[in-house]
């Protein structure tokens, strides 16, 4: 079940670093991240490379993804991915050199002098591999929501995901947007709590609409099957009051 974690106005932690003692002790034991380049320029993201990142992370853009026999989600539609990038309010991408990315079978190489060149040449989107990503959508004035935060498996638990969220939050808050939400699963809640999110102070719940499901009436509601989920939605034949 997806739950909405949110940050509201005065409840935003200072510098987004309000961690519990347990969380701090865990962070200090994590291995440091490799050399990184963090970009907020959407033009630095190659849609094909981003689609590959979705696949490596087994991340789906669908709320109810279809899984194959190996538990892999269906590939993201690259045309829709391009549109999502264009219409995202904030895009954060993370790059590192190919020698730190075992998931990529064919990465960029520096030749026989790669060891010492890797230490002196800074990482850029041009010489690095895309290893992390996150984005936010917004009405540009009042609210925003964070989506698609992902890091390749071999570089997780090194603070990269937290850097992505913190960069998104910094940009949104600097633009005077404080009502920031993230739709996340129960497994993702500890991560977003460590980034400063908490339960919605308005005690709201998240309801999802799906148009691609068969329906049948049940009293005044309709039961919609969406993948392995069942959603209850109001009957459209009744009077709607807003």
UniProtKB/TrEMBL annotation:
Gene Ontology BP annotations: UDP-N-acetylglucosamine biosynthetic process
CDD domains: NAT_SF
Gene Ontology MF annotations: N-acetyltransferase activity
Pfam short name (any one): Acetyltransf_1
Signal sequence extent: none
Location of the N-acetyltransferase domain: 68-227
InterPro entries reported for this sequence: Acyl_CoA_acyltransferase, GNAT_dom, GNPNAT1-like
TM ranges: none
Protein name per the record: N-acetyltransferase domain-containing protein
Organism: Capsicum baccatum
């Amino acid at each position: 079940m997806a739950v909405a974690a949110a940050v509201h106005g005065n409840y935003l932690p200072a510098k987004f670093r309000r961690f519990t003692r347990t969380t701090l002790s865990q962070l200090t034991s994590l291995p440091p991240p490799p050399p990184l380049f963090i970009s907020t320029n959407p033009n630095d993201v190659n849609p094909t490379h981003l689609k590959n990142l979705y696949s490596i992370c087994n991340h789906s853009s669908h709320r109810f993804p279809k899984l194959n026999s190996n538990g892999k989600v269906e590939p993201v539609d690259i045309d829709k991915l391009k549109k999502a990038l264009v219409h995202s309010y904030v895009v954060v991408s993370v790059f590192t050199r190919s020698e730190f990315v075992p998931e990529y079978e064919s990465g960029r190489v520096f030749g026989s002098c790669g060891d010492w060149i890797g230490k002196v040449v800074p990482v850029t989107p041009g010489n690095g591999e895309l290893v992390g990503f996150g984005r936010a959508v917004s009405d540009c004035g009042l609210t925003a929501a964070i989506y698609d935060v992902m890091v390749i498996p071999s570089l997780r638990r090194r603070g990269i995901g937290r850097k992505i969220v913190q960069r998104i939050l910094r940009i949104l808050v600097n633009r005077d947007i404080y009502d920031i939400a993230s739709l996340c699963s129960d497994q993702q809640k500890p991560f977003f709590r460590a980034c400063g999110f908490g339960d919605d102070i308005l005690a709201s719940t998240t309801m999802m609409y799906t148009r691609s499901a068969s329906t049948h009436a049940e009293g005044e509601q309709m039961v919609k099957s969406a993948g392995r989920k069942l959603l209850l939605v109001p009957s459209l034949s009744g009077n709607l009051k807003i």
